[in-house]
């Protein structure tokens, strides 16, 4: 509780607070994180973007995995961690979320300013003409026997609007994330901004560069993660507890709620 009080004071005093989230914030919604044994990510070899474009066989493998992952996402609901961040934003205490997640649960919880670095699995799009479809429509085609669906307008492959291994990071979200991160920089003579890194092992680049950038510019770096992360040595404070419980406690202190 001492640590919660200390961080709540930092959050209240900060001119800017930003949250950076990874797969760990969604495990309490039943979506396994990247390295959990048994999760889809551990059972399939990733399909690199070049392979996806070049080979129908690779696309069939990609869609088999995506169908399984999407079933996990489709039934998942936001948990206490997502809700706490949405409430902090609504109360004017959180400037935005930079997420590596593709599950859309922050938006479902009510968060408005969400920067998705790796895209979203809730939209499917043609890789050539950009025509978008809801995933359910494409999944129905796969269930009816198509292994690797193509665009019905131009014939090019359809792909989830997520960033695959080997695919370039999207320029606009990266620039927005950079700007939001720098909003936490320490102002001359003022209190530090706060950068919360939540549920990420911080091993995937360039995403992990944001907490580093915040810290290098004078923000306080708080890490909420059950296991060690690459940036632990830089952190001002680390919580190893459940994300849902930690963020609920922080939310209730920062928003002066009597009950979490
Ligand atoms: P990661 O799996 O590398 O790290 C997740 C971290 O969260 C782990 O270190 C784990 O100890 C911690 N964690 C898990 N549940 C927790 C809990 N309840 N409380 C406290 N800590 C908890 O994930 P990453 O750093 O986000 O990188 C994985 C990549 O895979 C990302 O790029 C992401 O796009 C993708 N991914 C996304 C989802 C999703 O959208 N939900 C799920 C899996 C993977």
Can you write the helix and strand succession as a string? HEHHHHEHEEEHEHEHEEH
Number of strands: 9
Mean pLDDT: 92
Q: What sort of overall outline do the alpha carbons produce when their principal axes are compared? A: elongated
Distance between termini?
13 Å
Structural class: alpha/beta
Helix content: 25-40%
Provide the gyration radius in Å.
19 Å
Strand order of the largest sheet: 3-2-1-7-8-9
Strand content: 15-25%
Bound small molecules, which ones?
nicotinamide-adenine-dinucleotide
Regions with pLDDT < 50 over 5+ consecutive residues? none
* Major sheet: 6 strands, parallel
The helix tally amounts to: 10
Any overview of this molecule?
Helices cover 38% and strands 15% of the residues. It has 260 residues and is α/β, with parallel strands linked by helices. The strands form two sheets. Strands 3-2-1-7-8-9 form a six-stranded parallel β-sheet, sandwiched between helices. Strand 7 (194-198), helix 9 (209-216) and strand 8 form a beta-alpha-beta unit. Helix 1 (2-13) crosses helix 10, helix 5 packs parallel to helix 10 and helix 8 (171-182) runs parallel beside helix 9. The longest helix is centred in the first third of the chain and has 20 residues, at 56-75. The chain is elongated and about 60 Å long. The model has no long low-confidence stretch (mean pLDDT 92). Nicotinamide-adenine-dinucleotide is lined by residues 22-24, 26-28, 31, 33-35, 41, 100-103, 118, 199-201, 203-204, 225-227, 242-243.
């Amino acid at each position: 509780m001492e640590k919660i009080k200390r961080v709540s004071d930092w959050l209240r005093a900060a001119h800017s607070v930003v949250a950076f989230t990874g797969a760990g914030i969604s495990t309490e919604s039943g979506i396994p994180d990247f390295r959990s044994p048994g999760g889809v990510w551990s059972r399939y070899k990733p399909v690199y973007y070049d392979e996806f474009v070049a080979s129908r066989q690779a696309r069939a493998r990609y869609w088999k995995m995506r169908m399984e992952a999407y079933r996990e996402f489709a039934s998942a609901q936001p948990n206490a961690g997502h809700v706490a961040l949405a409430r902090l934003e609504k109360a004017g205490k959180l400037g935005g979320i930079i997420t590596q997640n593709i599950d859309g649960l922050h938006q479902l919880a009510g968060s408005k300013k969400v920067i998705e670095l790796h895209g979203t699995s809730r939209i499917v799009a043609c890789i050539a003409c950009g025509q978008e479809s809801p995933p359910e429509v494409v999944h129905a085609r796969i269930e009816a026997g198509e292994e690797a669906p193509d665009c019905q307008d131009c014939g090019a492959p359809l792909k989830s609007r997520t960033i695959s291994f080997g695919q370039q990071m999207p320029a606009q979200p990266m620039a927005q994330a950079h700007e939001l991160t720098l909003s936490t920089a320490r102002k001359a003579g003022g209190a530090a901004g706060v950068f919360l890194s939540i549920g990420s092992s911080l091993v995937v680049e360039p995403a992990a560069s944001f907490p580093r950038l915040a810290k290098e510019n004078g923000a306080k770096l708080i890490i909420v993660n059950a296991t060690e992360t690459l940036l632990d040595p830089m952190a001002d404070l680390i919580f190893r507890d459940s994300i849902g419980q930690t963020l609920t406690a922080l939310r209730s202190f920062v928003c002066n709620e009597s009950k979490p």
